[in-house]
Design brief:
single chain, Quinone Oxidoreductase, Chain A, domain 1, Rossmann fold, 6-stranded parallel sheet, 18% strand
Length: 400
Amino acid sequence: MRAVTWQGTEHVSVETVPDPTIQQPTDALIRVTSTAICGSDLHLYEVLGPFMSPGDIIGHEPMGIVEEVGAEVRSVRPGDRVVVPFTISCGQCAMCRQGLPSQCETTQVTEHGSGAALLGYSKLYGQVPGGQAEYLRVPFADYGLMPVGTELPDDTYLFLSDILPTAWQAVQYAGVPEHRSLAVLGLGPVGQLAARIGQHLGARVFGVDPVPERRAMAARHGIEVLDLAEGAVGEIREHTQGRGPDAVIDAVGMEAQGSPMAGLAQTIAGRLPDAIARPVMERAGVDRLAALHTAIDLVRRGGTVSLAGVYGGAASPMPLLTMFDKQLQLRMGQCNVRVWTDALLPLVEDPEDPLGVGDLVTHRLPLDEAPVGYDLFQRKHDGCIKVVLDPTIASAPAVP
């Protein structure tokens, strides 16, 4: 089969690799029909090279058709159309039963002190082959796979694999609808959806991003948008009686600009030999924290900061004095996908599209053009906000 493989920092390629097979009786094999590039994939592309191996199959936002199931799989059968969550969870352990499948005790990557294994996401999370491929093996298929209807296009359902439940969890952790004003920092795919969800649940939502195309997309959905400039914090405060919003979602994470030294440290660590870089990142990694510090500054006293953006630093400095003085709540964590999908499925199937999932994809490319998609997404060129790869269509022939 053809699959997107990691080959080095800022280098992915589409290669022919062996087809996956059933390895456990709880597995299923999926023929992938759509698979997206996530902002978290850029962390592998740019920063987390020390935890990758050349040839690793990446990607964790797939959906498709069940081709084969293991002997113990009961909830799906060949021919079913399914969405595949990015977390690999058993559904039976103590963590899964408590609504924390992202901490699944059956698939925890104890070697690295990590939570549940993830599709296509480095040694830190199990080095499981990912979903930017023509076919995918899905462990614990009975719990993970989400059967969906056959009438609506893939884009209706695809984002249930990751970014839509991630955005929903971020808004729930932010305390909406109890909190009636919400700022979302970063209007990439997760930030776009978080802003729309917050508005859907009744909040007044401010969206902050330096990229004009992202602000324009959010504005189409009624979000009050601001550029990422010094005046943004003050302007939002003016609209919230001088206090700041009740809650702030940081949808940026370690991609945040504004911390040159941390950015340099990330870059250097990402290019060191793996044996040196891994302990540096595991024990002394420092993130770019501009977005998180802005969230802490902006939120009202007694408010909530919800982290949807991924951070990877082990020694990132936090303004604990300010956080304590402002009596803040801080919520975060890998998304517990299957906890939220039952609530989200009727919303994505609603003909009114209340969350605007039909207005997110800006680029659709054949699987073989994944390197182009990664470059566009990383550089935010050509108005790129969300890239979907289609393994079912061929690339255009090269021009001689």
